[in-house]
Amino acid sequence: MALSKVEQDYRRLLEQAVAAFHAGDRRRSADKYLEAFRNSPSDWTKDRYHTLHGYTSVLRERYFEPSQEDFNALATIGDSKHEPHVYRSEAMWTLGLLKSDLGKRQYCADLYRSAIHLIDTAKPKERKKTVMASLYDTSRKGMESQYAIRWDRHGKCEAQAVVSFGTHVMQLFGLKAKPELNSQLVDILGPDPNNEGRWKTRLVVNLNPQGDGTMSIATEKLKHIRPVA
Asked: Which of the listed residues 80, 111, 127 is the one where a domain comes to its end?
């Protein structure tokens, strides 16, 4: 299914955030994560939590001094009556941590309590929502084990069972034939049946109108993207 323009723009911003982080430009990465979050297709876009967590985790890792705009953004998300509680809580917790660094311990404690209260008061319907993409891509090993599972019965290893599920996003790196594709994001479509140790992938953002963005990539040329957990 073709992505809408809103989805394409969202993916492009997320890709820019990831690329900036790996290039060492943490400030730009945080800004792009926040921009992607604000421009996500819906409140319940499946990986929207990862997007917000990308922003907040960069701030919490103290790569740079947070700006007043960062404080304002976190407060706006935390105070919003329209945002789901899980996002508001993430923002409140992060804001509390940053305020603690400034010595504002009482304000920090109030924010932590607000974050806990938001989770405690989330409605059942909201609790059942999926807010994170699969964490399979935290390692290539995890990706491989998700597609092929072995189980033990009576002390013997049985045949492999193939597990099928939706696409997931990883990042290309170390490509020599097409270095311009390094840092690009791809959907993992499944193992390449014609090449052991390789995966069928499709570019998340395909700027080449002559192709559909699909290609076979070796396992060692794929890595998980930020944020991880």
From this structure: 127
- How many CA atoms lie less than 13 Å away from 175 in the CB half-sphere? 18
Distance CA(91)–CA(138), nearest Å, equals 23
- Residue 162 pLDDT exceeds 60: no
Looking at the fold, whether 183 and 92 belong to one and the same domain comes out as no
pLDDT at residue 97 in the model: 94
pTM: 0.60
Euclidean distance between CA atoms 98 and 210, whole angstroms: 47
Burial 203-219 (b: 16+ CB within 10 A, else e): bbbbeeeeeeeebebee
Same domain flag for 118 and 144: no
Residue among 98, 109, 14 at smallest CA distance from 62: 98
**Range(s) of the domain holding residue 191:** 135-223
